Amino acid sequence: MLGVQLGASVASAGGPIWVSPIALFVIVVIAASLCVVASIGVLVVAHRQALAELGLIGAFAFAVSVLPLVHGLTTPGVLYAPNLASMSSAFWALPLACVSLLPLALPRTELARTWTRHWRPFAFVNVAAITALSIGLLLWPSMLPVPAMNSRSATIAVVASLSICAALSAHHLRLSWISRTAQPFFVSLGFAMIGTSSLVWVAGGPFTIGFWMAHAFDIAGVLALTIGAAFAYNQGSSLREILEPLVAHTPLLAFEVGLDPLVHQFVGSLESKDPITRDHVVRTAELALRVGTAMRLPASQVRTLGLGALLHDIGKLSIPVEIIAKPGRLDAEEFAIMKGHAVAGERMVMGSATLGSIAPIVRGHHERIDGAGYPDGLAGEDLPLLARIVSVCDAFDAMSNTRQYRDGMGEDRAIAILREHSGSQWDGRVVEALVRTVRCKQQRVPALERVGRVVALESDIERLDWCGCGDAVPDVLVESISAGLPGHLR
Question: Alpha-carbon torsion 166, 125, 85, 156, what sign?
């Protein structure tokens, strides 16, 4: 899109290609009016559902819709004589709209979090100010200055606005990758289009190719932002449940909404057999996602990490319940059986085309950096990074929380043990990333609580076939899942 807009701006050096104030008036007024209605709809949904990020995006969409509407209404030669408002409203629309995005674009400091918590008055003030400015421009068309195209001040405003839009576009593209859902992609596309449209101010002039192209990008961008919400609303799930990953500033919610029902089925089966293990894997997955994000892993690896952490103990479905639930220490024979859960879990996920990528994590989450782990005795860099992350998060949660065989020792003691064995049992870089994550005072966003508790299945075998697993599923997987289902579904 940047290439198209820049190419159109360069081509604009030849001058106007279609000078039609009437066409500009009609196109912009109709399109901008639709965008205003759509942005108001987003604001209403955000208010009712208490979705802070969606409300801030709605305020942004409102600003880049109302001021362009003024741009269309004040087109010289239609309702107004030559005036400044037609160009000033178009120029200031994006920079002023970006003010409403500052809580999302700024680093996640306490100021940004406070700003987000009080998003309603902040968004209302932004909407009210933009509305007042728009009315003022209609009444006094010369009230707001406008820099010349390709001037230094115009370039600075374009670079700043484009940078904010590009950052939020990249963020939502990452969420779309993690969640494997389309809604965040629409938001990413919208921000990219709106940001790209600002490039018209660094080259060309009115009624050139670049001028018309910028209008097309701006209109399409606002509609893409709002289509994300409309698309979500038309799904069968709860509106809040779908919109949260659309706008959330954390990948946790995006990860949860994109989970395949087979994953819910696995975790639900774990809960049927051992609720303590189910809660452990959910907490481990949440922590692993936070650590992976803190380590700036690519989005594709963050998703694989989350799935691997969530299912790292799935092999325990094949372990007798009397061993899993034993309140004391396991004897040598029992421990040997328990150690088999890593290989059994690998077999289970390898039977699914959608989960095969996490097999190294499931198999290797009890390996050690010094090679003294199991089942393969991998050491150092031979142990996959994602397995190392899950290993640290698994150990931290197991130590800090109460399990069947002992009481939890608390976070500080667990961190001390991790650091004591850093570099021998666990990866030191991962340990320090976990410590920073655990001790971060950032407000926790509840996530993953519903995993394994929101799936209604018609048939366990039909579900497996639907996933493309078919005959490749080991018998232990079918038996384990079936054992966790209500009688009428077995």
Answer: negative
